[in-house]
Design a protein that fits this description.
With about 220 residues, this protein is mainly beta. Strands 1, 2, 4, 6, 8, 9, 11, 12, 14, 15, 19, 20, 22 and 23 form a 14-stranded parallel beta sheet that branches. Strands 3-5-7-10-13-16-21 form a seven-stranded parallel beta sheet, with no helix packed on it. A hairpin with a 4-residue loop joins strand 17 and strand 18. The termini are far apart.
Length: about 220
């Protein structure tokens, strides 16, 4: 649990079951985790999924993280580069597995990573503005494999007032590739498809840019 600024975790292997393994909850922490493996041991017994690493104030570089219900939580300000995030694992059948999840954020960078989810629940990336706006998002040069829908990109809907209460703003989604079978898990990238935001009216098209995204096998 990081409560001091400018901490570095490097060249390490960190393992723990049914708990968040690395926790940073201060936006200004400037935590750096690099050249490190983080392993949830496949012991997540939660109903919703415990993120191995979260929530804000950190940068990951060349991190291998795996075997918890969720792998990464990015709320606030967080960046991930050159990492392998894969193989979520829950003991509860109700668990919704996300490799990366955010429900409110001010600064997100997800650049040049490999994200793999062999399950139909739920995603490789879920950006869903449930509890606040999600601002300043760059998702670039990643390789995706699996999930139900590989990418969820939602504004937040208030069912009681029937209005959009929070939005994903200032987002770019560029130069990403999807694996599909026989190399990847599913024929359409995710079990249902590559990105739910292409088909769902909750996606705020006016404030995001999608360019040069393609299948890995044929471009």
């Amino acid at each position: 649990e990081i409560k001091a600024p400018n901490v570095i975790i490097r060249n390490s292997r960190v393992r723990a079951g049914n708990v968040q393994v690395i926790k940073s909850e201060i936006d200004s922490n400037n935590l750096l985790v690099e050249d490190t493996e983080v392993d949830g041991l496949g012991q997540d017994n939660s109903l919703g999924g415990i993120a191995l690493i979260g929530r804000t104030g950190y940068t990951l570089r060349r991190v291998n993280a795996h075997r918890s219900g969720d792998i990464i939580r990015m709320d606030g300000t967080a960046e991930i580069y050159d990492s392998w995030l894969h193989d979520p694992k829950c003991l509860q059948s109700t668990c919704h597995n996300d490799i990366i999840q955010s429900t409110n954020a001010t600064h997100i960078r997800i650049v040049h990573n490999s994200l793999e989810n062999p399950f139909t629940q739920t995603s490789c990336i879920l950006l869903k503005a449930d509890i606040g706006d999600i601002n300043d998002v760059i998702v670039d040069k990643n390789l995706f494999n699996g999930g139900g829908w590989t990418v969820y990109w939602y504004d937040g809907w208030d069912p009681d007032r029937k209005v959009w209460k929070f939005h994903v703003k200032q987002g770019t989604f560029t130069n990403n590739k999807w694996l599909r079978s026989p190399i990847g898990y599913w024929p359409r990238g995710g079990y249902h498809g590559p990105a739910v935001s292409q088909y769902d009216p909750a996606f705020n098209h006016s404030q995001t840019t999608w360019t040069n995204n393609a299948w890995f096998d044929n471009g």
